[in-house]
Amino acid sequence: MRETMKKIAALWLVMTAASVFAGSQQDKGEVRHAGVFRSLGNPYVEKEMIGWEAGIREQGFTAIARAPDTPTVEAQIQLVEQLVAQRVASIAVAANDFDALQPVLARAMGQGIKVYSLDAAVNPQSRMTHVNQADSEKIGVTLVEAAWDLCGGSGDIAILSATSQASNQNLWIDYMKKELEKPKYSGINLVKVAYGDDLRDKSVSETEGLLLSYPGLKCIVAPTTVGIAAAAKVIADRGLQGRIFVTGLGLPSEMAEYIDNGACPYMYLWNPIDVGYLSAYVATALSDGKISGREGEQFNAGRLGSYTIVKAPDGGTEILLGPPYRFDKANIGEWKTVY
Ligand code: RAM
């Protein structure tokens, strides 16, 4: 009898432990992390979202990914408002404006929601930290050097950007302008910064406008994956390879044909899937209390390893994914199927 009682007690203990374990697993899955990305229909953004969702899910949490149809901040404010009402654990924003999200994000943080930006930053008061794809100054310096090289040291260049409020592009352009002041670049003349709004058609028509207005143009630098693909298409369609060069930040999958046909001899980028994936680990490190967004804090980002929070040029903090990577004829074949 005593043996039977013991067996029943042991069984009960095992069953209770199992249900507690199952319960905690279930609770974890009920914790929702949210991400508001720049816009749908942008292959770069889609890859960023895929990486972020995968990173949240592999940690056992629920991912809610949202993005407006076009890269406007008004639509992002509405999406954030809905997510605050849903009481998510964290909100990531790849922002379409540096300052405009501050009221809603401050409200979110006031309610205990962990807020951070990725890709395109919000101002330091609106975030706990920021996930930056690469050192912003380095991107600016690298793109100026590329334009100078492609122009053979002198000539007119233009920048084809995303929207005029895009904080990442604006920061890179500021660094480009600063770099262009150096004596080495005295022969380079920046004639215009055009905005294609990260929309394919608008980027094509802005490129056509540049060609019309500046017949002597030698190089178009597009620090946006949408802009560079549109500009390279116009140059290739018109057979202008060798006379006008396109460079900037592009997705290997979209740019391989233009790198091969010479419209864009080389360009730079980083892995957008990893930008999202790293951000997913920032979400959970913030909500677990492992980090608070202060300079010097460290955390683990799954398959990417360990990261340290550093000071950002805007006065806040950030986490740098890694250096920009160069793509050219020699290596584009191996990258075009990766991202
Ligand atoms: C576009 C977006 C994105 C930027 C890349 C380089 O797809 O503007 O924010 O990081 O280009």
Q: What do these coordinates show?
A:
With 339 residues, the protein is of the alpha/beta class. It folds into two domains: 2-133 and 271-322, Response regulator (Rossmann fold, 3-Layer(aba) Sandwich); 136-269, 3-Layer(aba) Sandwich (Rossmann fold), CATH 3.40.50. The protein has eleven helices and 15 strands. The chain has helices at 2-30, 43-58, 73-85, 102-110, 136-150, 167-180, 200-213, 225-237, 252-261, 272-287, 332-335, and strands at residues 32-36, 62-66, 90-93, 114-118, 130-132, 155-161, 188-195, 217-222, 245-248, 266-269, 298-300, 306-308, 310-311, 317-320, 325-328. The strands form four sheets. The chain has a seven-stranded mixed sheet, with helices on both faces. A four-stranded parallel sheet has the order 7-6-8-9, sandwiched between helices. Residues 13-24 have low confidence and may be disordered. The site of alpha-L-rhamnopyranose has 12 residues, from helix 8.
> Helix and strand string, N-terminal first?
HEHEHEHEEHEHEHEHEHEHEEEEEH
Q: Can you tell me the CATH architecture of the largest domain?
A: 3-Layer(aba) Sandwich
Largest sheet: 7 strands, mixed
The number of domains is 2
Oligomer: single chain
